[in-house]
Every structure is written in C-alpha cells, then in structure tokens.
Design goal:
Layout lengths: L2 H13 L8 H5 L4 H5 L9 H19 L23 H24 L2 H4 L9 H25 L10
C-alpha cells in the first residue's frame, strides 16, 4: 500500500469511515448545543472547544497550502485554539459544518496530489504528507476525548459495525 492510500484511509477514519474508533461526523450528529458546551469540570474542554481546536489546525494547514496565509486563523498560544465563538446554536452548527468542509477540502487536496506533491514543503509547515499524518493522529486523540465526553453524558450512539 502506498503512503497516499494509507493517509487517505487514516484521514477518512477521522471524519466519516468507522475504524478502531467512531468517526467524528457520526459522533457529533446527535450532539445538542447543551451537550456541546457541557464540561464535567471547569479544567476540561467541552466537545465544542475540542472541535474548535481541531478546526483551527486543519484550517491553518488548508490556508497555508492554498497560499492564503492572510486568511489563516490566528492564536496567541495553543490554549486559545480552544476558544469558542459566541455560544449560540447557530454557531455550534456552523462550527461543525466548517470542520467537515475543511477536513474534506484537505482530503480532496491529498487525493489529487501526485507523489512529488506529497513531500513538497508548505509555507510555515513541513510537507503535506507529514502534516496530514500528524493531524490525523491529533484528530484521533481528540476524537477519543469527544467520545469520552459523549459517553459521560450518555449520548453516544450505540451503533457500531463491530
């Protein structure tokens, strides 16, 4: 199996193809606004904060890849990447939609990339293959946290293929 195919499988498992963990799109489909902002303790991040964090890094990579560094999200530090927009139901829906859109755009870029494109440096980043590999692992880690939070709330859908 080539690197591109392997990475496409990893990338899909984070969003919409079930593998060892449920994909984020499935996990979030029934999460309400109230569940999205819930925290078991103040020192933990909410589901929505975690999605904002994932979106920040994926959107930054997408903007850098597209050469749109003036449009990339900004943060003073990693902690501020968890910051929420105004807490409204509409903003929760838009955050989820934007995450799915950005994730799929990165997937399209990967799918269209030739072998040599995978290893070409991206401004401010390493190569596409290294950044997407790292982001897939980063997503999987935080998806696990989101799954844990949904289980704590008793809301994770019980339908798994295994």
């Amino acid at each position: 199996m080539d690197v591109k195919t392997l990475l496409l499988q990893q990338w899909a498992s984070c969003l919409d193809q079930e593998d060892w963990f449920p994909p984020l799109e499935k996990v979030l489909e029934d999460v309400t606004f109230e569940q999205a902002i819930w925290k078991p303790v103040d020192s933990m991040n909410s589901i929505w904060e975690l999605v904002c964090h994932l979106l920040f890094y994926e959107k930054r990579l997408l903007m850098r890849f597209l050469g749109e560094t003036g449009n990339e999200p900004q943060a003073e530090d990693n902690k501020s990447t968890f910051r929420l927009p105004a807490e409204t139901l509409q903003n929760w829906k838009e955050t989820k939609q934007e995450y799915v859109y950005v994730h799929r755009e990165l997937e399209k870029i990967l799918a269209k990339s030739e072998e040599e494109d995978l290893y070409r440096p991206i401004p401010g980043e390493r190569s596409l293959v290294l950044e997407l590999k790292s982001l897939a692992m980063h997503d999987a880690y935080h998806i696990g946290q989101i799954v844990f939070l949904t289980k704590m709330q008793g809301t994770l859908a019980g339908k798994r293929r295994f």
